[in-house]
What we know:
The protein is of the alpha+beta class. It has a single domain, classed as Calcium-transporting ATPase, cytoplasmic transduction domain A (Distorted Sandwich). It is built from 4 helices and 7 strands. The chain has helices spanning 4-20, 71-74, 123-133, 140-149; strands at residues 23-28, 31-36, 45-49, 57-69, 80-81, 99-100, 105-117. Strands 1, 2, 3, 4, 5, 6 and 7 form a 7-stranded antiparallel sheet that branches. The termini are far apart.
Amino acid sequence: METVQAVKARKSMDALKTLSKPKAVVVRNGQQQEIDASDLVVGDVVVLEAGKYVPADLRIIESSDLMIDESILTGESLMVEKTHEAVADTKILAEMKNIAFMSTFTTNGRAVGVVIRIGVKTEIGKIAQSLASTKEEATPLEKRLTNFSY
């Protein structure tokens, strides 16, 4: 039998989980609806507004005064102006003015974009995957202390 305190704690945790789930506004069947970002698929049409996180890598197809904080990816402290207009093909993230990247933050304006990458295939997903696969190595001091202790 669960105690009252355990039940309250479980309810609090469930409430926190629903708050922390990223949401996305999509256009499906001609209607705007809010879904869990984890339910997005490549090809979904997503609506971005100021104050919202970008839920996946998106190619912007419509925009109005769109500014995005990409500091999580580029380290730049200034907001980046984004556009729906075509740009020259490049591998440099900071020059991809018509792409909104997952986990960045919309600070101004509105836009509509098409999902082009989700999950570990996104730019932030690639970074997370490379960090997870990096092997942690002992520092020289740790190695000497280990040798000293034997």
